[in-house]
Amino acid sequence: MELSDLIAQQIRETGPIPFNEFMECCLYDPWNGYYTTRCNSIGAEGDFYTSATLSPVFGALLAKQLEQMWVQMGCLPFTILEYGAGTGHLCRDIMTCLQTNTRMFAELRYCIIEKSPRMRKLARNLLTDKVEWYDSISEIPAINGCVLSNELIDNFTVHRVVMEKELMEVFVDYQNGFCELLRPAGTTLKAYLSELGIDLPKGFGTEINLQALDWIGEVASALKSGYVITIDYGYSIADMCIPGKEKGTLLCYYKHSVNDSFYEHIGEQDMTSFVNFSALRHWGEKNGLREAGFTDQRYFLTSLGFREQLLNILSGEQDVVLAAQKAAHIGHTLLIEMGSKYKVLIQEKGVAHSPLSGLGICAPG
Question: Considering 189, 202, 294, 341, which has the largest number of Cβ atoms within 10 A of its Cβ?
Answer without folding.
Answer: 294
